[in-house]
Amino acid sequence: MREFRYRRRWVVAGSITLAGALLAAAFHATHGEPETVALVRGYYEAIRKHDVRKALRIAKAGPPAGEAARFLAPGALGDWKIGAVTETDGFVYSGDDDAEVTVVLVGEHRRRYRSTVRLVRGRGGTRIDEPLARVRFASTALRYVEAGGIRAPFQPDPANDERSVEYLLLPGLYRFYQGRQDVLRVTAGQTPVSPGPDGGAGPGGLPVTPELTLAPAGERAVERAYDAFIDRCAKTRGRPDAGCPFGLGSYGSLIKSRDRTVSDFGRLTWRVREYPTISVLPQGSGLQIVDRERGTVELSGTGRVDETGPRRAFTVTCDTIADATRATVAADGSVSVIAPDRRGTALETCGDNPLRTS
Question: Are residues 172 and 138 in the same domain?
Fold first, then answer.
């Protein structure tokens, strides 16, 4: 008799479990997927179709004002597919006013990227807590920022010591710095962007620092720009600027060569004798210019040689020294040479060579 009662209880318990499963199945068949999943799926579908307005409308988010919103545009968005969208912590289970939905995005080579979307419930209904991601572009040799097919000048806030710029982006898979560039090449690939720690974002936003390599034509372009920079410095009458790759140092009213000195000098002119041979290294916030073979410029003028006798004409050969000179590349591919900040202390590059007089 006792055995019969145990079997009957087991049957009743199994019937209740089966009924619950059937009711849940019937609910989803009637009502479809949970509200949270439908909201997130619709949001990502709008982004995938490059419909920025619809995505922001679904997320109940207004676009930010100004430059920060530049990449909230169809041309910036990448191409990918949506994989599984599942509710991992729902309102009904947690009893709280927030829920979580996990989204899987499928990119090139079928690579999958998982992120978590937090939703909150309030008087206006359910909404995505953080619909936009903060992305911070670091200072590089490229003097522009790029997402998808949109480029913008790199214009950091002068008060920002980190030398970076920040934008707000919709979540998804992006290609940064993948547009045509003849001087530099960026390692290809998609970068996942999502709000919060799942997107790799720290307190200052997701950092974007492209890995740069010099294109075949890049070194020649930098060489031409550096030669032109030397030409501009050589047009100086008198002492060149402190940032030039040659100069007379900080001896004041005295020019020193290897074996002689010139005082009371004037009518100084410079002429390029031989341009340097350089190497170019992508490094930090610029392309570092390094001397393989130094160039030479000739300084001519008049002055009192060894502080004796009348003023005489003289010439002396001076080296060129790159010494922390860098180059940057603009959005149109043009190269600019950035002179080092020597705080007014000019190079002295003539002291190792003999002085000639006439």
Answer: yes
Q: Are 174 and 200 in contact (CB under 8 A)?
A: no
Is the separation of the CB atoms in 192 and 306 below 8 Å?
no
One-letter amino acid of 137 = F
Q: Which pTM was predicted? A: 0.81
First-to-last alpha carbon distance for the chain, in angstroms, is 132
Whether residues 115 and 176 share a domain: the answer is no
DSSP annotation of 204: T
The backbone region for 163, taken as left when phi is positive above 0, alpha when psi lies in -120 to 50, beta otherwise, is left
Q: Which residues contact 47 (CB under 8 A, 6 or more apart)?
A: 55, 77, 170, 171, 172
Residue holding tokens 């055995």?
A: 3
pLDDT digits (tens, 9 = 90+) for 48-84: 999 999 999 999 988 788 899 999 999 999 999 999 9
The count of other CB atoms within 10 Å of the CB of residue 145 is: 26
Q: Rounded to whole angstroms, how far apart are CA atoms 294 and 281?
A: 17
Q: CA nearest 337: which of 243, 271, 248, 274?
A: 243
Domain region containing 166 = 134-214
Rounded Cα–Cα distance for residues 324 and 338 (Å):
9
- Whether 138 and 166 map to the same domain: the answer is yes
pLDDT value of residue 175: 96
Same domain, 107 and 228: no
Q: How would you list the strands of the sheet with 206-208, edge to edge?
A: 164-169, 133-138, 206-208
pLDDT tens per residue, range 84-121: 999 988 765 555 678 999 999 999 999 999 999 999 98
pLDDT (tens digit, 9 = 90+) per residue, 258-282? 989 999 999 999 999 999 999 999 9
Number of H helices, E strands in the chain: 5, 22
Of the three residues 163, 197, 214, the one that is the final residue of a domain is 214
Point out the domain boundary residue: 101, 117, 132: 132
- Count Cβ atoms below 10 Å from residue 22 Cβ, excluding itself: 10
